[in-house]
Amino acid sequence: xxxxxxNPQTDVFEMRANYEAHENLALGLLAAHLSAHDHxxxxxxxxxxxxxxxxxxxxVQQHAVGLVGLSVNFVTLPSALRLARxxxxxxxxxxxxxxxxxxx
Length: 104
What we know:
Layout lengths: L1 E6 L5 H7 L5 H12 L3 E6 L7 H10 L4 E5 L5 H14 L4 E5 L5
Parallel strand pairs: 1-2, 1-3, 3-4
Helix pairs in contact: 3-4
Pfam families: B12-binding
Cofactor: [4Fe-4S] cluster
GO molecular function, one term: metal ion binding
């Protein structure tokens, strides 16, 4: 299965300086585990990579991604919800899962 793990952007501009360009290590660990079990896994980090939410949705559609995992906390929830809506419109068959501290 093709899996895309996404770290959404924060809408709180004051928080962006706190996060800077630090990668989401949890997504890296998940990707390593999934890859070891024969899943084609990719990570897009909207805090680091030059992707918009709409570009992520197009990527999901173009690459027939079967599952998208969104890492969510209190500052990324709005972006995660916009991403989920855009992905659902672009490719309704894709399973969307929210994880992280906010989803828990």
